[in-house]
Design a protein that fits this description.
With about 575 residues, the chain is of the alpha/beta class. It is built from 19 helices and 20 strands. It is about 35% helix and about 20% strand. The strands form four sheets. A seven-stranded mixed β-sheet has the order 13-12-9-8-7-6-15. Strands 5-4-3-2-1-14 form a six-stranded mixed β-sheet. Helix 1 runs parallel beside helix 2, helix 8 packs across helix 14 and helix 11 packs across helix 12.
C-alpha cells in the first residue's frame, strides 16, 4: 500500500483582502500538516479572492498579490501547497502556484477560460498552453484549474497519458440550483473514464451576486466517493489515495482504455521535478487510517435557503455593515427576507419597519408584528398617510383633469423607499430589498420605491420558490412565518382590493414562462407547443423586455437560478425586435 494523503482547504476568501486571505491560507497549511497531509490545495484565486474582475488590471493589485504569495510560500515547510493566484510575468494568467520548502517550485496556468454566463475570463486572462504534471512522493499529479476539468479531453487527457496517477483541480465554481449534482456526476465520470483519482477543491462564500457552495470532492479511480466537503461552510477535507491500487486497477483493465488515452492525447505537458520529496512523509499522521469525511450534502429548498443565508452574511460583513433594515409589509417576500437576514446576521442586527397606508389591511399589519415578535427583532412603525396626503394635495393642480391611476400607487412605494433610505443614511444600516424574480422580471415593482436599497436578497428567487422556502423554514421547528402570510392571496396593497393576479398571470404560469424565456432561451413557438397560452406568453415576454431599464437600476442580488438578471443576462434596453 502506497498512500498519499491529500488535504483540500475549502476556504472563504475575500476579494482584495490579501492580509486576511494570507492568514486563512497559512492556517490551512498548518492544519493540513498537523493532519499528516502530504499535499494541501486551496481554491482558484484563493489569494486574491474570486472573481477580482477589473482589479485584475490594477498594477498595485498584481504586486500585492505577488507579495502575498511570497508570504504564503515562507510558511510552507513539510508539505506541498497548491494555491490559486494571479501570475503576471507580462501577460496575466489565472494560475496555481506549487509551493515546496518555502519556494514557488512551479506555476500552472488555466487553459480553458470560461466566457459565458457570469464568467468573463477572456477579458482578463491569457490561456495557458501546456498542461502541468508534477511528481511528489511517488505520485504524478496532473494539476488543472476549474473549467479545465469540465472538458472530457484536454488538459486531463494529456496529463493522464503523460503518467498522471492523480488529478488535482482547484476551483471557484459558483452555486446555482442543481449545479452541485451536475458537478458531482462530471467529476465521477472523469475519474472513472481515466482510471485516475480526482481531487477537487472549491471556494466557499459570497461575493457580490455570487455564492460559492464548497462541496469539495475526492474520488478514487473507479469513481467512488472518498471524501466530501461541507455545503456552504469552510472545511478541511482529507483523504488517503492508494497509488498502488491505482496501478493495479489499470493493470486489471482489459478494455484498452489506457492505450487509447495515450494514443488520443500525445501531449505535450510541462513537468515539474525539482524540490519535491521522493516519498510521502507519514511522520505527522495520527491514528493511522482516516475516518471518511462524508457530510450529507444539502439539496432542494435546504440548499437554496443556505445559499441565501451565506450570500447575505458575506455581502453585509465583507462590505463593513453591521445592521440591516427591511420594510416589513406582512407579505411573503418581506417575511422570507427577514427570516434569512436573522439566520445570517442574528436578530440583534436586523431592524424591521412597518409603513402602513390607507390600503394596508389589518391582517398584514398583524402579520408583520407577529413575525417581528417571533424573530425577536426590533419593529418600527412609520405611517405614510400624512406624507401621502400632502403629496396628493401638492400634485392636485398638476394632475388636474386626470383620474387616479398607477401614479398614486407608485407614490406610496416611493414614500416608503424614501423612509427606508433616510434611516439607512442616518444610522448606517443597509437596506435589504424584498422583490422576487417574478416581479423583477415583468417590472411589477416601483423604481425608486420598493426597488430602493443596497442588496436584493431574493432577486433571483421566483415567487413559487419563495413559498417553498417559507414552508421549508417553518419546517425546521416552531412556525416562524405566520401561516396566514403563506395562505393569503398576494397583493401590493397600493389600491382598494388590489390583487397581484389583477395584473399578472397566476404565478405558476408566470414563473414557467420566465424560466423558459430568460433561463433557457425558448422561442414563443416552443413554449406554445409545450402547452402555454400564446397570448399570455407574448404578453409576459413583452413585459420582461420592456422592463430591462428598471432592472439596470436595481441593487445586486444573489444568483440562484440558471440565469439571473445582471451580469448573467445582458439585454439591450433600446430594442425594437419582436418575435413574429
Amino acid at each position: 500500500m502506497h498512500l498519499i494523503r491529500i488535504a483540500l482547504a475549502q476556504i472563504n476568501s475575500t476579494v482584495g483582502d490579501f492580509k486576511g486571505n494570507v492568514v486563512k491560507i497559512i492556517a490551512g497549511i498548518e492544519l493540513a500538516a498537523e493532519l499528516g497531509a502530504d499535499l494541501v490545495a486551496f481554491p482558484e484565486l484563493a489569494l486574491t479572492g474570486y472573481p477580482p474582475e477589473d482589479l485584475t488590471f490594477n498594477p498595485d493589485f498584481l504586486r500585492a498579490n505577488m507579495k502575498a504569495l511570497g508570504e504564503v510560500a515562507g510558511a510552507v515547510e513539510d508539505i506541498i501547497a497548491v494555491v490559486g493566484f494571479l501570475d503576471a510575468p507580462g501577460e496575466i494568467y489565472n494560475a496555481a502556484a506549487v509551493i515546496s520548502a518555502g519556494e514557488v517550485a512551479g506555476v500552472c496556468h488555466k487553459i480553458r477560460l470560461p466566457n459565458y454566463g457570469v464568467f468573463d475570463e477572456f477579458r482578463y486572462f491569457n490561456a495557458g498552453e501546456k498542461p502541468l504534471l508534477f511528481e511528489m512522493g511517488g505520485a504524478s499529479i496532473g494539476l488543472n484549474i476549474c473549467e479545465d476539468i469540465w472538458y472530457p479531453d484536454e488538459p486531463i487527457g494529456a496529463q493522464v497519458a503523460a503518467g498522471a496517477n492523480l488529478i488535482l483541480n482547484i476551483s471557484s465554481s459558483p452555486y446555482r440550483v442543481r449545479r452541485t449534482k451536475t458537478r458531482e456526476e462530471m467529476l465521477e465520470t472523469r475519474a472513472r473514464d481515466y482510471l485516475t483519482p480526482v481531487a477537487y477543491v472549491n471556494m466557499v462564500g459570497g461575493q457580490d451576486e455570487l455564492v460559492f457552495d464548497g462541496n469539495s470532492l475526492i474520488y478514487d479511480e473507479h469513481g467512488n466517493l472518498l471524501a466530501r466537503g461541507k455545503s456552504f461552510e469552510e472545511d478541511m477535507v482529507v483523504a488517503d489515495v492508494d497509488l498502488e491500487e491505482v496501478l493495479a486497477s489499470r493493470q486489471r483493465d482489459t478494455s484498452g482504455r489506457r492505450r487509447g488515452i495515450e494514443e488520443r492525447h500525445p501531449g505535450p505537458v510541462e513537468r515539474l521535478v525539482a524540490g519535491f520529496p521522493k516519498t510521502c512523509s507519514k511522520s505527522g499522521r495520527k491514528n493511522g487510517q482516516l475516518q471518511p469525511h462524508l457530510p450529507v450534502p444539502l439539496d432542494g429548498a435546504a440548499e437554496i435557503y443556505q445559499a441565501l443565508v451565506l450570500g447575505v452574511q458575506d455581502y453585509v460583513r465583507k462590505n463593513g455593515f453591521e445592521k440591516v433594515l427591511i420594510g416589513l409589509s406582512g407579505g411573503v417576500d418581506s417575511s422570507l427576507t427577514a427570516v434569512v437576514a436573522v439566520d445570517a446576521l442574528g436578530k440583534e442586527n436586523v431592524i424591521g419597519i412597518s409603513m402602513p397606508s390607507r390600503y394596508t389591511s389589518e391582517g398584514t399589519r398583524r402579520d408583520a408584528r407577529v413575525l417581528a415578535e417571533r424573530l425577536g427583532i426590533e419593529l418600527r412603525i412609520a405611517r405614510i398617510e400624512t406624507i401621502f396626503s400632502a403629496y396628493l394635495d401638492d400634485l392636485k393642480p398638476q394632475f388636474a383633469g386626470r383620474g387616479p391611476d398607477i401614479t398614486e400607487e407608485n407614490l406610496q412605494a416611493r414614500i416608503r423607499g424614501n423612509i427606508l433610505m433616510a434611516l439607512s443614511n442616518k444610522f448606517g444600516w443597509l437596506v435589504l430589498t424584498t422583490g422576487n424574480k417574478s416581479e423583477t422580471s415583468v417590472g411589477y415593482s416601483t423604481l425608486y420605491g420598493d426597488m430602493a436599497g443596497g442588496f436584493a436578497v431574493i432577486k433571483d428567487v421566483p415567487k413559487t420558490m419563495v413559498y417553498d422556502l417559507c414552508r421549508y423554514r417553518n419546517s425546521l421547528g416552531a412556525e416562524i412565518i405566520p401561516q396566514s402570510v403563506i395562505d393569503r392571496e398576494p397583493s401590493a396593497e397600493l389600491a382598494e382590493n388590489q390583487k397581484d393576479q389583477d395584473t399578472l398571470p397566476p404565478y405558476e404560469v408566470l414563473d414557467r414562462i420566465i424560466a423558459e424565456y430568460v433561463e433557457y432561451d425558448r422561442s414563443i413557438k416552443d413554449m406554445v407547443a409545450a402547452g402555454l397560452d400564446e397570448e399570455t406568453v407574448r404578453r409576459v415576454i413583452r413585459m420582461i423586455d420592456r422592463n430591462e431599464y428598471k432592472r439596470r437600476q436595481a441593487p445586486p442580488g444573489i444568483k440562484i437560478t440558471a440565469r439571473a438578471f445582471g451580469k448573467d443576462r445582458r439585454f439591450p434596453i433600446t430594442n425594437r425586435f419582436w418575435a413574429p
